[in-house]
Write a structure and sequence with these properties.
This is DUF2848 domain-containing protein. By secondary structure, the chain is of the alpha+beta class. The protein contains five helices and 17 strands. Helices cover about 15% and strands about 40% of the residues. The longest helix has 13 residues, at about 40-55.
Length: about 230
Amino acid sequence: MYTRRQARLRRYDVRFTLLDGSEITTSVHTLLNAGYAGRSQDDVAAHVKELAELGVPAPSVTPALYPVAPYLAQQADAVPAQHGRTSGEAEWALVITDDGVLLTAACDHTDRELEVHGVAWSKNAAPDVLARKAWRLDDLADLDSVRLQSWVDGALLQDGTLAELLTPQYWLPVLEARGLAKPGTVLLSGTLPMDPAVDQFGTSWRVALTDPATGDVIDLAYTVETLPEPIG
């Protein structure tokens, strides 16, 4: 019989199936979202300037790292939203477990209305959706060639490779220095540019990581469901 404390911890569990069919479960106690994490920090600086013109506050340093409530690490099929101006971001997620470090696909769903008041607040307003499959990080021979894509309502919104983002090898020492490189920590990578011709405010999301060396694909999909109108 579970105790009340065990029931609370159980809500944070995430389970991944590896390519060999084995499963790894970890209980998330630390969830972090990297931001402004492009490998070219000159491009990042230009992006910060563009966002500032839209009213999004600039970070004090780049790359940034935002703590997120750990229960927001979810392997969900649906994401609740309070209004129609929320959208996902295609990312990889680093998952540290008792059985090694995993890499999986993720989508950082973000409240764009709240983002202009504080990026950290917007990251805590919706789940970080994780795929149900994962690779062992050490099994990826050429991480930079892995393709990262997102689709909203079937339209391709983001398309690039992990060579555009800071690597797991960059972030692992950062976690180590902060005492966070331990089982139960999940870190999302930051995202790629979006196609400005595509409306990001859709209701159906898919994110995929594709390893061209093997053809293996790790993906996730979910729908956005608007909450009922509030009373009061």
